[in-house]
């Protein structure tokens, strides 16, 4: 017997958080009875479970890495008709969704999966999985400004956790600097807001690592399947950082 939201997530319905919302909204039935409270357990091998009247089915678990390009949104659909990440997944028939998000103007490493447990473990705030970006900013921040980011900086939604920050490149002619920054949170537009807080607007932003996983030679707009070892390493990193920060 497993919690219903976990069963739904494992079946690829959505992330665990979204599955909880589906339950609370009355979209889920077990053996013909609507479930609207969390904590209910079921056995997918025995119980008939439906979402919006459709029975769930176990899908082959997929774990993908994409090199997202700028001008693409990490959503299943877009009312404005903009390009979405699934437009760049030829040959993938299963419904996959992003593990966390990269905003419209941000490029780089994006993970996608239909494994809700995997997505939840990597994105849950308590797990602190590191994500590394290259941020090209206007002007060249002084060392004291970067120290603010390293120690944590006050944003409108609270103080950020300490970040790892170092110069990657400086273009004196353009008066720009590219900074490598590793953060351990996943707030909305966090890196951009952190640099804005020290008065250096981000011009270009690219995520180059998720945990220890890097883009390597993956072309822009391309994707590949993660190896079993890469999936294992990501899960191990999430569990490890969770234990470290829990102490």
UniProtKB/TrEMBL annotation:
EC number: 5.4.99.-
Gene3D superfamilies reported for this sequence: Alpha-L RNA-binding motif, Pseudouridine synthase I, catalytic domain, N-terminal subdomain, RNA-binding S4 domain
Statement: the UniProt record of this protein carries the keyword Isomerase: yes
GO biological process terms on file: enzyme-directed rRNA pseudouridine synthesis
Cellular component terms (Gene Ontology): cytosol
Enzyme class: isomerase
Alphabetical UniProt keywords: Isomerase, RNA-binding
InterPro entries with a match to the protein in the record: PsdUridine_s_RsuA/RluB/E/F_cat (IPR042092), PsdUridine_synth_cat_dom_sf (IPR020103), PsdUridine_synth_RsuA/RluA (IPR006145), PsdUridine_synth_RsuA/RluB/E/F (IPR000748), PsdUridine_synth_RsuA/RluB_CS (IPR018496), RsuA_PseudoU_synthase (IPR050343), S4_RNA-bd (IPR002942), S4_RNA-bd_sf (IPR036986)
Family matches, as Pfam families: PseudoU_synth_2 (PF00849), S4 (PF01479)
Molecular function via GO: RNA binding; rRNA pseudouridine synthase activity
Domain RNA-binding S4: 2-61
Recorded superkingdom: Bacteria
Cell wall biogenesis/degradation keyword on record: no
Similarity comment: family membership: Belongs to the pseudouridine synthase RsuA family.
NCBIfam families reported in the protein's UniProt record: pseudouridine synthase (TIGR00093)
The protein's name in its UniProt record: Pseudouridine synthase
Upper classification of the organism: Bacteria, Bacillati, Bacillota, Bacilli, Bacillales
